[in-house]
Amino acid sequence: MESHEAFLENKYNEVYDSVVADLTRKKDQGYSVERMKMDLDTFYVHIDQDLDGRGQLFHLKMTATIAAYEALLHEWGEL
Question: How many domains does the chain divide into?
Answer without folding.
Answer: 1
